[in-house]
Every structure is written in C-alpha cells, then in structure tokens.
Design brief:
InterPro entries: AQJ64_40280-like. The protein contains one helix and six strands, in the order ββββββα. By secondary structure, it is mostly beta strands.
Length: 126
C-alpha cells in the first residue's frame, strides 16, 4: 500500500506569495453574513478556514473588474492577501500535495489508468 500521508508547510502571505498560476490551499479569514436583515443585525461570525484556490498576478472577474496579485477560488471569488482591502483575506497558503504515489499534481490521458493501478494495486474498487 502506498503511504498517502502528506506534510503541509504553511507560508504566511506577509512573507511571500505563490508563483503565478499556482494552485494552493489558502487559509482565509473574514466574517459570515449576519443573521437577519436590518440595522440590528450583528457583524456576523468570524471565521478562518481552508479552501483550494489559485494565485494569479492578474485576474479579470466576470464583470470585467481587474484584480492584481490575488487568490481565486473555483467559483471565481477573489480574495486578497491579508492586510489589503478585502472583506475576506488569505492569511497563509500551502502547496497542494502531489497525487498519491506521485511527485506531480496531475496526470492526463492514457497515463491515468496505469497511475491509478500503481496506487490501488489489485485491491477491488467497488
């Protein structure tokens, strides 16, 4: 059986950002929206969570807004590094782990089946 454990090294965004286009795990902080409408609603609950994102030096949102040096999630939500003007910011990032039994993050085409066979061996999949 392949050892499928990974070690994560978090990088504080104040110490540096990923390479352009790099997929990462991003630690995000902000506040959930307050419950209920109106001026009596509180500020919402503070959170700090991890999301898969990618870092880019230039991103154009669907509405045409240009963002520089930002993190973008799969829904197209843009988050800036902590300390910049954003309701939700990225405090830390980490490289995503490689695929089990591999030193790479992706395998394509005809190489997928042999790669899966290598990590699954003869173990039934069902």
């Amino acid at each position: 059986m392949t050892d499928q454990s990974s070690r994560v090294t978090w990088v504080d965004v104040r110490d540096g950002v990923p390479r352009d286009g790099m997929p990462v795990a991003a630690a995000i902080t902000g506040r959930y929206p307050a419950d209920g409408p109106g001026p009596d609603a509180g500020p919402g609950e503070e959170f700090w969570l991890v999301r898969p994102m990618y870092y880019t030096t230039l991103h154009f949102a669907e509405d045409g807004t240009q963002h520089k040096d930002c993190f973008v999630d799969s829904d197209g939500v843009v988050r800036l590094p902590h300390g910049l003007d954003s309701e939700e910011t990225v405090t830390h990032w980490a490289e995503l782990p490689t695929l089990p039994g591999r030193t790479m993050h992706f395998v394509l085409g005809e190489d997928v089946a042999p790669a899966l066979q290598d990590v699954w061996g003869d173990r039934p999949t069902g």
